[in-house]
Design a protein that fits this description.
The chain is α+β, with helices and mostly antiparallel strands and 284 residues long. It has 6 helices and 15 strands. The strands form 3 sheets. The protein has an 8-stranded mixed sheet with strand order 4-3-5-6-7-8-9-10, sandwiched between helices. The termini are far apart. The structure holds 2,5-anhydro-1,6-di-O-phosphono-D-glucitol (AHG) and manganese (II) ion (2 copies).
């Protein structure tokens, strides 16, 4: 059953990738649930995904960044697919790499019910990472098929540091922590598409990606169900560690609403150990 979901994700990736090449780059006059003005491409990608999953009788419901409410499909089915149709979509106009993110939940939208996740990267090449047990990298070949490339594993410590949000809104703790990583020789890598930034860190073996709480967004910007948890699943299964700054894992979060956001940190073991040294515990 899960295989059918992965096959559908492969078809979706090819379709969205083709659309990105020639589609209109304009905005719609709508905002999504988190207040971003939707691009025509965000809406088109959401429609492609909805259409493809509508054919699958094993999918109970869809939750999308671009839909205000959950969309029910088959009441007696088991899987809920939560997705970000196009991540980093505001970077299409500068021709940067962007992607789609999928989290597959069994029966209920709870962190512990996330059973698989996947993301595509629309860059110079079309790549796909699929994870149930261990993350696996696939690349579209000349024959139009996704070819398995390798298993992905993080090292104990990396060299890259990607951190988001408006710096003037950072806490002193976050600013000091980030400064310390640079003091220790980390190099800045941040494009503004979490898919591409996390993909780079994962493929280069390690480092840290963070999107902290800020004064204007105390719960961060990135969305729990379809951005944060799918990547936390992949990073933890690649041997990395995740946190909201204080927690032992992003999986400790409690879901209260479908468009909920959280501060988030994804890294190799060493960087998250340093994070905890700087952030400490919430009450301490
Ligand atoms: P989306 O395009 O789905 O709205 O997501 C954009 C997100 C994420 O990909 C990225 O890491 C972050 O926004 C960048 O935000 P800042 O420019 O505030 O760093
Ligand atoms: Mn996104
Ligand atoms: Mn998006």
């Amino acid at each position: 059953m899960m295989e059918r979901i992965f096959e559908t994700i492969k078809q979706i990736a090819v379709k969205i990738s083709n659309e990105i090449k020639f589609a209109d780059l304009g905005y719609t006059d709508h905002a999504n649930a988190t207040g971003d003005t939707q691009l025509k491409l965000d809406v088109l990608s959401d429609e492609i995904i909805t259409r493809e999953f509508a054919n699958l009788d094993c999918v109970k419901a869809l939750v999308s960044e671009e839909k205000d409410e959950m969309l029910s499909l088959n009441e007696n089915a088991k899987f809920i697919v939560a997705y970000d149709p196009l991540d980093g979509s505001s970077l299409v106009d500068v021709n940067f790499a962007i992607g789609s993110i999928f989290g597959i939940y069994e029966n209920e939208l709870k962190p512990e019910n996330l059973v698989a996740s996947a993301y595509s990267v629309y860059g110079p090449r079309l790549e796909l990472v699929i994870c149930t047990d261990k993350p696996k990298l696939y690349r579209l070949n000349k024959e139009g098929k996704f070819q398995f490339i390798k298993d992905l594993q993080l090292k104990e410590k990396g060299k890259l540091n990607a951190t988001g949000a408006t710096q003037k809104g950072w806490s002193d703790t976050h600013a000091k922590f980030i400064r310390e990583l640079f003091e220790r020789g980390y190099r800045l890598r941040y494009s503004g598409a979490m898919v591409s930034d996390l993909h780079q860190i994962l493929l280069k073996g390690g480092g840290l990606f963070s999107y902290p709480a800020t004064t204007d967004a105390p719960n961060g910007k990135l969305r729990v169900l379809f951005e944060v948890l799918p990547f936390a699943f992949i990073y933890e299964r690649a041997g990395g560690v995740t946190s909201d700054g204080y927690s032992a894992s992003l999986f400790d979060i409690k879901i209260e609403k479908i468009h909920q956001t959280t501060p988030c940190f994804f890294g190799s073991k060493e960087e998250i150990k340093t994070l905890h040294e700087f952030y400490g515990s919430k009450n301490g």
